[in-house]
Amino acid sequence: MSKHIISRSLAAAFILLATWGCKITEPTSRAENTSTPESYIGSQDTTNVAQIKWADFFNDPNLKSLIDTALSRNQELNMVLQEINISNNEIKARKGEYLPVVNAQAGAGMDKVGRYTRYGALEANNEIKPGQEFPEPYTDFTLGVYASWELDVWKKLRNGKKVAVYNYLSSVEGKNFMVTQLVSEIASSYYELMALDNQLEILNQNIDIQKNALAIVKLQKEAAKVTELAVKRFEAEVAKNQSSIYVIHQRITETENRINFLLGRFPQPVLRSSENFAELMPTLVKAGIPSQLLANRPDIKQAELGLAAAKLDVQIAKANFYPSFRIVAGLGYQAFDPKFLFTTPESLLYSLAGDMVAPLINRNAIKANYNSANAKQLQAVVNYEQSILNGYIEVANQLAKVSNLEKSYGLKSQQVEALTQSISISNGLFRSARADYMEVLLTQRDALESRMELIETKMEQMNAMVNVYQALGGGWD
């Protein structure tokens, strides 16, 4: 009868604990908004430049060499690779949590109790035949295997492993996103170096022109056709442009060292061929359709994996409300004398137990953790939506920039051609006294500025091409 009462009591306790654990208030959830516009500029062409590998996208062998070196030696990228290893090890650790834990144990000990203690009196007063008393001191030898296993009834441990897998995949996508940024930054810095080289060449050419004009002005001063003021204005303009040379040299040094830092090496010259920079044509960009961003951009895939992990974290936090079950077992030998250690069945020992634990008092703490997990899930939803929106806007901005820079470059080329011709015209008019020296100076200054701006526009064109490639998710494969 007593056994039936105990069984019924245990069953009732189990039902009570399970019911108590299941009373969970479901927080308000939010549906994800992952829809994107059908196209960028009305085109339905699915050809996407992001599917081209970076080694095929860039044609300059010097640039390819720089990127290849950076992908193997960049310190920040190598640190991220170690984060991936850590995430991989976390998967193995989580996998072991829902498997039985088995430990081997071997031990030896010695114990001497006092005569006038509880155990000493019991040993002395027991009716033991002569020669069979407790040994003094009492030695103990143990050899056995012990196991414990938490039953993953609510999939808490298995979900924990899945979270670790999602975190690992997320770290891989984070590495891929860093690669796209690294490739883009090196390419942009490389084109900036080429632009600076060309601006330096233009500046030297302009200084030569101004020195020739200065020589003419000095001759005209000797002939009393102009005053000393004209000579000084021309000398000041030459000195101004000569000082600009050192500004460009400093920018070249800083840009080279920026590249060297990304390559994980100490300062050294960066190999490049800048002679034909003005003739470079940006690669024709095929943007595809916006929905391809979900598959191509590593940051969007990383946010999606983070959302999947956050959903499982909510399930794990929810499982903490339910009872947990554990089985503990042991098998081994124990004796006070090594010669009796493996005597069977006298020295054999074994144990088997199971327990159930459910929260009763600290439910507020579990509720708080559950609500925090749900808040983080909603945070992951917003982050995912924001990454999609950010990706679309980045592509749209860069596509518009490519188009506008192309038109701007055409008009600036016309401006440079006209101003370059005006230099020889103004010089001729100045020699024949049909134009004053200020017209010559302003013409030369405008021509220099227009040529420098044309190189800046070409650099922006090349960088816009790189930025579109990155925004579409290219460069990491």
Automatic annotation (TrEMBL):
<dbReference type="InterPro" id="IPR003423">
    <property type="entry name" value="OMP_efflux"/>
</dbReference>
<keyword id="KW-0449">Lipoprotein</keyword>
<keyword id="KW-0812">Transmembrane</keyword>
<keyword id="KW-0472">Membrane</keyword>
<keyword id="KW-0175">Coiled coil</keyword>
<keyword id="KW-0564">Palmitate</keyword>
<dbReference type="Pfam" id="PF02321">
    <property type="entry name" value="OEP"/>
</dbReference>
<protein>
    <submittedName>
        <fullName>TolC family protein</fullName>
    </submittedName>
</protein>
<keyword id="KW-1134">Transmembrane beta strand</keyword>
<dbReference type="InterPro" id="IPR010131">
    <property type="entry name" value="MdtP/NodT-like"/>
</dbReference>
<comment type="similarity">
    <text>Belongs to the outer membrane factor (OMF) (TC 1.B.17) family.</text>
</comment>
<feature type="coiled-coil region">
    <location>
        <begin position="438"/>
        <end position="465"/>
    </location>
</feature>
